[in-house]
Structure formats: structure tokens, C-alpha cells
Amino acid sequence: MEKLIIKYLTGETTVEEAKMVREWALESEENMEIFVKEKNLRVATMMPDVEASDSEADAFVDLLREHDRKKPANNSNPNKIRIWVTAAASVAAVALIVLSVSLSVFSAKNRDLKEELAFITTQQLSYHQNSTPYGVKGKVVLPDSSVVYLNSGSSIYYPSKFHGENREVDFTGEGYFEVRENSAFPMKISLSNGMSVYVKGTTFNLSSYENDRSLSLLLLSGKVSLLDNNSNEIVKLLPKEKLLLDKTTSKISVIRPQDIVPTVGWKKGWLVFDETTMPEILKKLERWYGVNVVVNDSTIMTKTLTAKFREESLSQVLELMHRISLIDYTLKDSTAFLKSYSKR
Amino acid sequence: MSGNISRVDFTSDELFFRGLYKEYYHKAVYYANQYLNDYEASKEIVQEAFLSLWERRDVLEFNQNIGAYLIKTVKNKSLNELRDNIRKLQNVNSEKQADLILNQRSLLDDSSSLVENKELSLQIKRILDNMPLKMREVFLMNRDMELTYPQIAANQGVSVKTVEYRISRALAIFRKNLSEWM
Does residue A271 contact residue A311 with C-beta atoms inside 8 Å? Predict the structure, then answer.
């Protein structure tokens, strides 16, 4: 029912559905109360945060004067006027700030003007998205000259200019971040699972692929924290520490790896497996080489591999996995078919 | 008058009400319209509310919460209007009447004053700040710029389905985080 109420409040119900909601709400006081709370909360959330334009406000003052000509006000109280001047001054200051951010000068009724403004506003706050397809790596320089190296299959979304409280970016995939130090203006990296990484200036490797079971964050220098969905700090890392989050169980562990090459080697062209399980290996191969991997036999999925490759082709990697009796494979176009190893 | 030249010939009363109008006009019209389902009538009611405040500007004790006072005035006027409209719709259009009865019940409930709650608005802002950029952008285009889903989709270069998904996700986040208010 909840879903249907929301649909009704959005005006998206069919005639029958709307009828159902009305009847349900009018059926009992309990139902009515649920409906009422849902409606009022929605009104509060959807309240537009938009100012009237200067010309609308000027027209309003004209209306006040017109009104006074017909119906003069009572005697003025000079004390009150002084209070208003301060209040008005603060209103003006707020208006200025809001204007510089959102250019909120349109009439809610005027469609053409509105569309034009939508255009201008998005131009002003233009956003960039840089993505690396599978098989391709990349490097992005952010507006504050922070540098992000993107591993294959990653995407970063950021404004043309940072403003507000934080330097905000959206990120998915794996990236090696060199964030410009600015402790007064931290960077907040929002991840697809709702968490975020909060940094003031540091170097770290972040791996947060949407379809990976775990998220990993290795701090090389500086300070960095992981925040939950409500921006509360969950963990703060020290340099050389690596955080691992299991997204399904939400279990977090912090380790101090002996060797950082398995984590950051990709940036220098190393494809590294370190006791890596087969599902993980296959995902990495797909991203690294931009190929599809099809597994015809699930028994291989429990195997692990420790190996280091650099500039090897996919067939060389698969051949090595075959030689150590891990798999059999065939390569056709850009698809690799894998099955369990059998002696011939 | 040209839009670039700002007027300087305001009295302090006028300047104060001008600021009030700028900040609250669209909010108040939206609020009334959510219950009246009548945009023109909502605009009229809001204008009347501003004028009645203006008339009483010398006898009312205004503090910084004058916005809440304005909303309260709009609320009372809307309730009167609703009562009349519900009566008029008797035996004319039972569905429209039922819609307005639901709205009337909602507006009579204290939770309709949530919009005046500074703490709630702050929390809404906080939740917005924590949303992923794209989701927030799409949500605000819909809420504050009143763009339709297809317009947003065209603007963002994504499908209407994606826009729908992002907005419904945004609303779900609000619902989850604001449950204590319900």
C-alpha cells in the first residue's frame, strides 16, 4: 500500500489505483493517519528551495503601494523599523549567496524562460564524467589539480569547479588518487553503495567496483576516513594501512600489507594476483583485457592464483594458468571459455 | 524596468517585505497547491496572506520566524477554501471531493506544519548534501526547477527510466532517514 500511496501523491496512479488509495484511506482512522503522515512528509521534502525573481519582488512592492493607496496602514513604529532593516540586510546577503549558486530567477509559470534557465544553470554547474572502458586505463586531472589514475572499467564524475563545503566527486571502479592538500576544503568521494571517502590531501588507492563484493582502500600518505551513508566516520586510516570492506556482511578489516604492489601495481602496468580467488581473477581479466570470460565448469571457481604479469597478452596469461594445471581454455574473438583442467 | 538595474527607492518596510516575498513566495504557493490542487487559487491565497501581514505590520510582533507565521496564515486560508470547495463538489464529482477530503485531513493534522520546522529543513538539506551528486542534481532539477522527467533526461543525456530511478531512489533515502518524523 505504501508504494501505491507514493504513486498517488506523485500523481502517477491509474484511475483504479487512485480509487483504491482513496477508499483505503477513508476506510479507517489508522489508514488515514498513515496517509496523512506520508502526504505531509512528502510536502515538506518536496518544498522547492527557490527564490522569487527580482522583477517578481519589485512587482510585489508595487502591489503593496497600490494596496496602501486604497487602505492606508496604521501609525508606524520607529523601533520596529530598525529591527527590520537588520533582518532585511541579512535576507539580502543570503539572497546574494543563493543567486551565485543557483541563478534562481525564473517564474514558475513561464515555460520558455524556465527551459532557458535550466540550460543556463546546468551550463554554470557543468559536470564532467570520465570513464575508462574495459581494457583501458586513464588519468584525470580534477579542477583543484588533484590527479586520479583510473584503472579499467572505472568512472569519475565531478563539477567543472568545486564549490560548497567539500570537493565532491562520485566514483566507481578503481583509482589511484593524489589529492591536493587543502584541509579547509576536504574532498568527499561518494561511492555507489552510499558510503564516502573523506580526505584533506593524501595519496591512496581506492577500489570500489559496483559489482565487486569487497571495497578496498590503501592509504599511502596523509589521512583518509571512510564515512557511512550519513557521513559519520566509520574508520580513519593511517599510512600503509589497507581497509577491506565486505559489502555483503558489512564487515570491515584493516591490515598492514607487506607488499603494496598487488594493490597499486596496476598503475605501473602490473597485473597482480595474490592468493586471488577465481571469481575475482575473472573479473580482473575482463576489466584488464576488455574481454568476456565464460566459465563452462563451476568447479574451477574455488581455485586461487598467485602470479604477477606485466605486458603479457591474455592468451599468455591463460596459457600460464593452463600450465600450472588450473584451467583449460579456448579463446575465440574477444571471449575466453574456461573449464577445469584435464590431463590428455 | 530593466532587469539589471536594481531599485533603491524602497522604504525599510518595503525592503523587509520584499525579502520575505522573495524567500517565501514559491514555497508558500507550492504548499497551498499541495492541498488545494488549484494553482491559481493558491497564488491568490498566498498574495492575500502577504497583504494581510503587510496591513498588520505595525501591530504584529515579528521575529525571525516570520516565515512560519506566513505559512500559518496560508494554512488557515487554505483550510477555509478547502471547506468551501468540498461543499461545492458534493454530488458533482465524488473523486475530486475525496481527494480534497484527504488533503483537508492532512492539512488539519499537526504534521502539515513540518514545513515550518527548522530542524527538519536542516535535516532535509543534510540528506541532500549526502546524496550522490547525480541523484541530487536530478532531484533538484525536478523539485526546484520543476523540470519534467523527459526534460531532465534530455538535459542529462540519460534515459527517462534512469531519471525515474534516481528520483525514486532519492525519495527512498528521504523516507528512510526521516522516519522519526512520521
Answer: no
User: Torsion over CA of A48, A51, A56 and A57, rounded to 10 degrees?
Assistant: 130
In whole angstroms, what is the distance from residue A223 CA to residue A201 CA?
7
Q: Give contacts of B111 with chain A, Cβ < 8 Å.
A: 36-37, 40-41
Query: Between chains, do A114 and B112 touch, taking CB under 8 Å as contact?
Result: no
Tell me the per-residue pLDDT of A244-276, one tens digit each, with 9 for 90 and over: 998 888 888 888 888 887 888 888 788 888 888
SS3 A223: coil
Least confident among A95-99, A119-123, A269-273, B16-20: A95-99
Overall CATH class of domain A269-340: alpha beta
**pLDDT tens across A18-41, in order?**
999 999 999 999 999 999 988 998
Coil, strand or helix at A71: coil
Kindly state the helix (H) or strand (E) to which residue A226 belongs, with its residue range.
Answer: strand A224-227
The answer to whether residue B118 scores a pLDDT higher than 90 is: no
**Beta-ladder partners of A174:** A207
Domain tally, chain B? 2
Could you give the CA distance from residue B89 to residue A86 in angstroms, rounded to a whole number?
Answer: 47
Amino acid symbol at B43 = K
Q: Flag whether residue A17 sits within 8 Å of chain B, measured between CB atoms.
A: no
A49 pLDDT more than 80: yes
Q: State the ipTM, two decimals.
A: 0.82
Burial tier of B3 (Cβ tally within 10 Å: 0-12, 13-18, 19+): exposed
Residues on chain A touching B51 (C-beta within 8 angstroms): 63-64, 67
Instruction: Please name the fold of domain A129-261.
Output: Jelly Rolls (2.60.120)
Q: Which of A166, A164, A161, A124 lies closest to A142 in space, CA to CA? A: A161
Task: Please give the full DSSP string across A80-92, using - where no structure is assigned.
Answer: HHHHHHHHHHHHH
Tell me what percent of the residues of chain A surpass a pLDDT of 70: 83
Distance from CA of B160 to the nearest CA of A (A): 15
Q: Which residue has the cell 477513508?
A: A26
Of B112, B137, B156, the domain-final residue? B112
Query: Do residues B106 and B126 both lie within one domain?
Result: no
Check residue B8 and give its pLDDT. 55
Is B57 close to A51, i.e. CB distance below 8 A? no
Q: Would you say A55 and B1 are in contact if contact means Cβ atoms under 8 Å apart?
A: yes
Interatomic CA distance for residues B109 and A249, integer angstroms: 41
Q: Which of B27, B101, B129 sits opposite A48 (nearest CB)?
A: B27
Q: Which of A19-28, A97-106, A191-200, A216-225 has the lowest mean pLDDT?
A: A97-106
Structural domain containing residue B140: 117-182
Residue B95 has pLDDT above 50, yes or no: yes
Which residue do the cell numbers 471531493 mark?
B97
User: Which residues in chain A are contacts of B62 at CB distance < 8 A?
Assistant: 80, 83-84
* Residue A184 per-residue DSSP state: T
